[in-house]
Task: inverse folding
């Protein structure tokens, strides 16, 4: 798949809340998932490999008590890279309701996503 097709498919699946389906379909086995520096102890950090990315997603999902809304922007594409903005309105277990927003940057190589990196305010 070309970068534009991958980007559009990722957006489609994310808008449906099918994050693990997107990873299974679009990610390389050795993909990297990079979080910002300065995360608090115990927070879900950067990982390497599809199995670790699945687990990271499951751990994040287990921290959510309720989803109230969210959105995913259209992708911005530059050759083998694309970015999207994502926002979620959720109730986190033990933390209450929060609005989260981030910029997500992806690299495509060999027809698969090989890197995702997230940019958001920590703390």
Result:
């Amino acid at each position: 798949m070309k970068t534009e097709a991958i980007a559009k498919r990722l957006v489609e699946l994310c808008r449906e809340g099918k994050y693990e389906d997107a990873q299974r379909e679009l990610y390389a086995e050795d993909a990297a998932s990079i979080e910002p520096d300065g995360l608090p102890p115990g927070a879900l950090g950067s990982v390497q490999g599809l199995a670790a990315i699945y687990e990271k997603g499951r751990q994040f999902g287990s921290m959510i008590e309720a989803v109230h809304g969210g959105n995913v922007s259209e992708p911005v594409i530059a050759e083998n890279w694309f970015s999207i903005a994502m926002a979620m309105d959720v109730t986190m277990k033990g933390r209450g309701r929060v609005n989260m927003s981030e910029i997500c940057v992806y690299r495509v190589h060999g027809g698969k996503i090989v890197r995702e990196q997230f940019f958001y305010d920590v703390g």
Notes: The radius of gyration is 14 Å.
